[in-house]
Structures are given as structure tokens and as C-alpha cells.
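Exercise (ungraded).
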Amino acid sequence: MAKVKLQVEHLHTVFTRDGKSTPVLEDISLEVGEGEFVCLLGPSGCGKSTLLSTMAGFLSPTSGEVKIDGEVVSGPDPRRIFVFQERGVFPWLTVEGNIAFGLFHLTRPEREQRVAHYIKMVGLEGFEKAYPPALSGGMKQRLEVARALAVNPDMLFLDEPFGALDSITRLIMRGELLRIWEAERKTIIFVTHDIDEAVQLADRVVVMSARPATIQQIVDIDIPHPRDISSSRYLELRDGIFRQIGLAHRI
Amino acid sequence: MIVRLRPIVLIAVLLVAWQVAVTWHPIHLLPTPWAVVGGIGDLLQHGLLLKYVVASLFRVTWGFVLGVVLAVPLGLVIGWNRRAEMAFNPLIQILRPISPLAWIPIAILWFGVGDLSAIFLIFLGCFFPLLLTAMNAVRGIPAVYLNAGRNFGLRPAALVSRVLFPAVIPQLIVGMRITLGVAWLVVVAAEMIAVNSGLGFLIVDARNAGNRYDLVVAGMVIIGVIGLLLDLGMRSLEQVKSLRWSYSED
Amino acid sequence: MNSLAEPKKWERFFWPVLASALFLALWHYSVVWTATRIFPSPHDVEKGIAELIHKKVLWRDIIDSLRRVAIGFGAAAAIGIPLGLTLGWYPAANQVVNPVLQILRPISPIAWIPVAIILLGVGDHAATSLIFLGAFFPIVVACVDGVSNVPSVFRLAGRNFGLGPTRLLTQVVFPAALPKIIVGLRIALGIAWLVVVAAEMVAVDSGLGYLVIDSRNAGKRYDLVVAAMLIIGLIGLVLDTAFRRLETIKSVRWGFRDES
């Protein structure tokens, strides 16, 4: 495996509210290599979003630490951009404005060049001057990804980014994301509750249990891209995870 | 605990600053906080405070209730019917920005100087805000609620009482709270100009009849406190559970 | 949303015209039937307006009223917006200052008149300071509300992109809060317009409010009273409409989904 990019060491997180404490993450340890695409998979509410937020530096763990490039994470940083579920797009800026948002340290021509490049990459040509309310859900999601990529981060954290989209758009967006990832090899950590999505996208799937979350299993997806989703290896891996989570095969 | 005391500390500091400022540089006639307290005591002693407060509250209540009774049903109807809204909108838009106080000459013409005039002015001050609140509330009802009601076979009357009304009540209550605040502002102004009793009158009279500015400011303080109490009272209505459905995270 | 068919285009003019015509007719005939000699009929009012325009008093009064509103409202915005933004951004500060605001807010600007007169004397200054008081509180409240309700996603994203506190405030919090601030300003302007009329009835001797009172006092000219009232209504409407135009600007429109 390539060199280690992100390390989680014995992470515990406990939420306290009104005097009651709820353990959310229990003894999470994980290593992610540079350029890897890792999925955090688990049922809703299990704590995977909390883990992602902690990795991105938005939350502090109760104990344990997260290290990126050997440095302990103590806050958010433009080198690792978090992509929310399309609601993170700024509605008061145009598509161009949003993508240019993090580029305030560049000169004007540099900025414009970058923005044009990423608009093309995510396929939003023609919508440069449009405002987010005029865009569809899928387009807003692409905009958010473009905005994230424009600052050239090392890592991307995506929190169920396709959750609000219809299933057809979701399939298309998965392909888009992989295409972008192959063009600019960032380290990606992707949270989802969709087993198929995880197996289709990730190099490794981290299967998490329900709250308090622990790592149940880490599955290596050794199928090269583009993945045939009817191939026997794909189904084997996917069913393996099904079984791990304890789900029935018939409805 | 200490955190809760901070606002009180601020108020105390302001009061001390006021006292000091006026004692050092006596602005002719401006009273110190202490004098104001004395003024309140004075009013209590002479039984005037209670009398004036009751007079003002009486007018507010009547004007406000009249406003609710007339404006809310009318607003619900107009908001419901697109054509009615189209018809009445220009009239409403022109009459709305006219300060109730601008109606004073007409009020005096129609009702003379006295309680009725004041109630009329308060009614006017309440009417348009309540009308608009009701109109907006009806327009904001999600179509799904109405469709569900129809789906279950509700007749128009039942649709109104079992779907429309509950759906608009949270917004109506907020609107009523804000309008009550307006009513309180109007009554004071109306009493300063058009009647001979009440807290507004107290302010004008105290000044005219002898420059008793301690009573003037005492009156202002009492007005502020009662206005605040009215507002808090209405807010507690908003807390009633069966009405709370639309306040997600207050 | 109601069960009738979609109104046709011509109906957009038909209904308002019909309603207004009925209203005017009702007014006119009430005057005729009650044989009142004081209350004006629509026609009297029309003549009154012409008279006011002719005598040139009207323009001076309108300008005076607008000027006071401009100064009072402008000052309220200049002080209220920064204050409101600060209080919204630092909840601790808000917790301390808010009770003071809540106590002062219900005191009608008109009730402040005697104090204003002591401190500033009779005249323009008193009127403008009353307008300031009337507009100040809604503006502060709207700013606090706008800032504290900025969805946390936006602030998190801003921090994520490495924005320092100043940039965060100017490039994320302020634009996100702007729709609410604009609504607050519009409401405050409406209040300012109400207050100026009231203030002019009591504390100064020019302006539209003064015109209303004076027309009655100086000769029971109720036709001029109603004429002045209508003009007040009209200008108030124009101010409100102009503000609503602001709300349609694209970079702000996202915050107004369903405005009346």
C-alpha cells in the first residue's frame, strides 16, 4: 500500500446532553493510504458521520487522536475539504462564485482559469452565472464537488453526498465521482449507508456497527475499475457484507 | 448562575450611570432614577397608577379583540380566495401604511374625545397587521394537508375547522403577539393626543400640569414593563403544546 | 390552492377595479345619504389634493417627512445593523444586552417625546430621534435573528476553506443573514413611516402628520385631512414596494421563498 495519509488511533467519542452521556464511537482505529478511496459503511445514526466530522477536524474526540500526514488534526483545514449533502452550496453566489470561494489567495486570471477548468470537469458548462436555486440536486452536488476540488486539497470527505438524489442520478454521479478521482488522485473518505454504493466505489469498505460504533470489518474490494456490477466477484463481496451486517437475502 | 446575573448587572450599571450623569450635570428637569422610583410611589399612593393602567388596558383589550374578531375571519377568507385577494389588495396596500394616529381627526369627528376614539384607533392599528397575518397564514398552508382532508371526505365546514384552522393557528398566534405590541404602542400615543385618562395621558398631563418629569419617566417605565408582560404572556400561549406543532426548534 | 379555476389575466384588473369602485361608491353615497356637511366625499378629497398641490405646501411637507425618515431610519440602520450583527454573533453578549432591549422596546416612541424634548428641544431633532427609536429595535432584532439562524453548514464550510474570522463574517455570515436583515429593514421603514406621521402631530410644525392635524384645527378642513391621509398611504406604499424590489435581487432572492 502507498504511504499512510490518515491515521485514527483509538478514537472514543462520547456525547453529553442534559447530563446524559451517550457513547457514539468506541475504540476506532484505522489507517488510510494516500490516494485511496475508502468507504465508511453503516446504518443511519451509527456514528459514521461523527467519525467523518472528527477526521475533518470539526469535532474533537473524547479520547484518541486523528493524524494526517503525521500531524494531529486540531481543526478544519483547506487541505481536506468536507463535501456536505448539496446543502453546503452558498445560495447567494453563482456557480462561478461558489467554485471561486476558496481561491481568494490567487490572482484574478489564475482564479478564472481554475474555475473554468473545474466547471468543465464536473460538466456544468453553460451554468456559470446561474444561482443554486436554479440547479437540480445533482447539479448542486457537482457544484459542491467542484468547489472542493478547486482549492486542490489532499483529501476529500464526503458525507452521504448522493443521499438526496434519485437513484438514477445517483448511479450517474457515482460514475462521475470515479472519473474525477481517476483524473486527480485525492484520498477520499466517503460515508454511505448504501452497500452497493460502497462496493461499487471503494478500494476498501469499513463496515461499522450500530451505536456505539465500532469497526466490524474492513473489506478489500480487489476489483479494478470499471467494475462490472453483475460479475461474480462483485456479488460475492457484496453478499459478504450483507451477511456481515446480518441482513436477509429475500424480501 | 453568574451568567444569569450579567444582564442585571448591565441594567444596574446603566442606572447608576444615569443617576450620576444627572446629578453632576443637572439637565434641567431630567429626573434621576431615584426620583422616578419616588414618582411611581407617588402614583401608587394616590391610587392613580392602578386607575390609569386599568384605563389603558381596557382600551387595548377592546380594540385588540375587535381587531381579532373582524380581521382574522376576513383575512382567512381573502387569503383563501385568489379573486378576493386580487380585489382587495390595492385598498389594503393603500390603507395599511396610514398611521392610526393620522386617523385622529376622523376618530374625534365620529366618536368624540374619549374611550371610543381610543378604541377605534387601537382597532385600526390592529386590523391591518392581523388581516395580513391571516392572509399569509392561509396562503402558507401546505396543499398536502388540504388534499389529505379532502381525501378523507371532509365537508367544507369540517375542512375549515379540522384542517385549516389548526394549520393557521401557530402563525396567527405569533401575529397576534406582534399586533398586541403594536396595540400597546398605539394606545399610549392615542392617549397622549385624544383622551383624558390612561398612561399616555399621564405622561402628557404630568408634563403640562407642572413639569413633573419624574412622573413622566415613571409613566414610561410602567409602560415598558406592562408592554413586556403582555408580550411574555402571549409567548407563553405559544408554548401550549397542542399549538406548538409548527415550532420545530425554539 | 382553492377549488376555483385559475383566474384569467383580465381578472387581475377587473376585481381590484370593481372592489375599489364599489368602495368609492359606498363612500360617496354614505356622505350623500347622511347629508353630513363635514365629512368629505371622494370628489371633495380629489379637489383637496389638487388644492394642496396648487398651494405648493404639499411638496414641502412631503419632503420634510421623507427627510426625517431618511435621517432617523438611516441612523437606526447605521447603528442597529452592526450592533445586531455583533449580538447575533456573540450569544454571550446578546444574553446580557437583550433584556435591556426587551424592556425599552415596548415603550412607544411617542411616549419618549417629553424626554426627547427635554434633551433635544422641540423640532426636527426630536422627531428624527423618535423615528430612530421606532426603527432601531426591529432592525437589531432582525439582525440578531438573521445571524443566529445561519445554518451551521455554511459556517463549517467557510472554516473548512480556511477563512479567518473577519472573512467568515463578511463572506459567509453576512450574505447568509442578508435576506432576514432586509426584511427587518423593510418592516422598520414601515414603522418609521408610521412614527414620523405621529411625531409630526405632536412635536413639529411641518410634514404630512402636521398637515393632517393642522387641516382639522385650522378650519375643520376634513377634505384636506383625508387627502393628506391618502397621500401618506400612497408614499408608505411606494417605500414598501421599493424595498420589496430589493428582495428580488438574485443574490438575495434565495432567502425569500414565498413572500406576500
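Further reading is listed at the end of the chapter. For now, observe: Residues 167-183 of chain A form the longest helix (17 residues). Chain A touches chain C through 22 residues (CB under 8 Å).
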